Amino acid sequence: MHESAAQIFINAFLANNFVLAMFLGLCPFIGVSGRLDTALPMGAATTFVMLIASVCAYGLNGALAALGLESLRLIAYIVVIASSVQLVEMVLKKYSPGLFRALGIYLPLITTNCAVLGVALFQTAREYDFVQSLVFAIGAGAGFTLALLLMASVRERLQLSDVPSVAQGTALSLMLAGILSLSFMGFAGLGG
Amino acid sequence: MTATRTDRWDEFMEGLWRQNPIFVMTLGLCPALAVTVSAVNALSMGLATTFVLTASCFLVSLLRKRIPKEVRIATYIVIIATFVTVVDYLIQAVSLALYDALGAFIQLIVVNCVILGRAEAHASKHPPLPAVLSALGMGAGFTLGLFALGAVREILGAGKLFGISLFGEHFQPWVVMVLPPGGFFVLGLWLLLFSAWTRRQRRKEAIQHA
Amino acid sequence: MKPAIDPLPTTPTAAMLRTLAVVAALCGTIITAAHQGTQAAIEGNKRLAIERAVFKVIPAAVSVAEYLALPEGRLVKVGADKTAPAGAIKFYAGFDASGRLVGVAAEGAAKGYADTVRILFAWEASSQAVTGFGVVSSRETPGIGDKILVDKDFLANFPLEAKLSADMKTLANAIRTVKHGTKAYPWEIDAIAGATITSRAVGRAIDETAQALLPRIAPHLAQLEDRP
Description:
B: two-stranded antiparallel ribbon
């Protein structure tokens, strides 16, 4: 079955949203989504890292398959993703301090975000080619950003409302996420 | 002697209850929500995570004096990834159906923050025995949390527990519970319950102290 | 973390590299051991899973052989060498106790409602029809999309005509899924009302694989009959 770029994007972005349908990247989703102004840079930084991870994973998978070392795939992915993020961080710091200030504090956090490793693992499992992998990474990043933005805006509104104190905190965030996830189910079938 | 035994027990209970990774610390939520559509999946995921957690903590604790500070995180990640790969093969060897049901989330154990957190905060500072006990406690706590989610979702969403029908055939399954939103709702409700219970407990203590 | 007031003595690079090498060697050994130790069991499990799935869609079969249909039209048995050449399509041939070919089974996939639906369907050469199918993996909504396996009206679509055209290059009539209650030809699938998207995925998955695979298999049926 051949999936077109548009199908892959729509699926990763809406129909199978990484956060709300696949449960990837929940830690930042619950932790960082308190304010709208941090949600966007966080989302942008994650998308950026996902792109790097996707390119690395594509190259690595080819190399490991050629060597017959598929059993080392997971170790190779996590080490290469972590170190390439570190490298990007250093490059950004030196050549683009403005961008570094905007994204920098989020980069180390993102390395252990399961959405990033998820992109790498899913694109391998689905045997995407290079372009498909890139589109998938962008779609997943955009979906993550969208979920973060929606959640942050709802939570900002909630600060003004009267919530029973027993429900405050993570419990309330999860309920909200459930309702968001419910509404995202309406997108199912879009990617057909 | 008794004192150390209590300490050991304490080490174990810490993760199982007081610092329960799911209900108290809300860590490792991704697998907790993604694979808990049935009690069996939840238990298997819990056991797999416990294995990785315990084995990694044991190795980290053994090597704790030899691992240079500068590269410790990288070393921990490599060790964890090793045991995740091992578990990946083991599950495939035991049951392919289970492997397909858990999917990519077996490999994603590697980024479960509970494991890296334990390795860094506990195993790197303690000798092997307490490190393993504490890891076992954490793992048991994680498994308990997953099971609590998986059992509720399976009962409500499919009317079954461990694949055995609980209600008659007229039961209309509450399908949304085994779909993604159900995961969020059930965990939210468990947390609500937990927070209500701790508040009650605290109020009781306050009355007793007064 | 706050910076330590008394900076820790830095480890010399050589020592650092040595430790890393030891850890890497240790981890490599563990992984290789696990891989070697479980490989036989995993292979066995996979073969068992395939056999079970194929027996389900070809009930008359008692043994299964795995084949590749190469783009130029040759059929080769899958042996120890697992690498499939580009464009090859994998299929399974099911034989009865006397070694006669009773059906071929192949996987197909299409986008369903929630995610990709993967199915395994069986084709019978004598009747030139798809005799049945099973689900390999699907995340369709429980109670709606998974009706494709239990809905009596839907299962009544099979056997489904999948005749090759006169020139043996395509199917004579493409398999397609039509709205519930409007099935007019034997190559059409009557969709389940309320689960049209999943029904359509089944039709598309069968059609796509059948169009590519059957023209390659049909001229060489004798090779399969004569079980090596």
